[in-house]
Write a structure and sequence with these properties.
The protein is built from 8 helices and 6 strands, in the order βαβααβαβαββααα. α1 packs across α6. With 180 residues, the chain is α/β, with parallel strands linked by helices.
């Protein structure tokens, strides 16, 4: 199984924290391959300067280079992130999101804080291992039901925008929607 770790925050401390967590998880859970994906605004060279050299030597960690988010989602089963909008796309592609690491000294960037199902939180590699084991053992019917609820949540979260609402917003900021 593959676990996708998008690093969509370009704040160096966030890149370091999530990469360190990925390394600890990869060591704890050798049966999983961890795909590290950095934000498009940060080059792989920049990201690698921020993280431990052990990351590239860990046999079950690979870096997503020159792949689309769609390609990475196709090969993953779960997604671990911290505040990434990619989590919305990943849910629609069938991945279960895991939010972490969390801790007293870390800001909570979780965009899915209201989602009650198809979403887990992990603070330690041990919790991640337990979460993945529970996910693997969950009956298919329950997985499908939770995923369908999450999709409805995302559809409500990202609902369609009507033309009249766009006109109202443009008017409120002093722009006329009909001018070019």
């Amino acid at each position: 199984p593959y676990s996708l770790f998008p690093q969509h925050l370009t704040i160096p401390s966030e890149v370091k924290a999530l990469s360190a967590f990925a390394l600890a998880c990869a060591r704890q859970i050798p049966s999983y391959t961890f795909v590290l994906r950095f934000h498009p605004e940060i080059t792989m060279a920049e990201a690698l300067r921020l993280v431990s050299a052990d990351l590239s030597r860990q046999p079950n960690i690979i870096f997503s280079e020159h792949r689309s988010l769609d390609e990475d989602c196709e090969r993953a089963s779960v997604l671990l992130s911290r505040g990434s909008s990619a989590v919305i796309y990943a849910i629609l592609r069938g991945l279960m999101p895991i939010y972490g690491p969390v801790g007293a000294s870390m800001l909570d960037w979780n965009p899915l804080f209201k989602l009650a199902v198809w979403h887990r939180r992990c603070s330690t590699p041990q919790e991640m291992a337990e979460c993945l084991t529970a996910y693997e053992q969950m009956p298919q019917e329950q997985l499908k039901g939770e995923w369908e609820q999450a999709v409805r949540y995302i559809q409500d979260y990202t609902g369609p925008v009507a033309d009249d609402r766009i006109e109202e917003i443009l008017s409120q900021v002093g722009l006329n929607g009909h001018e070019s």
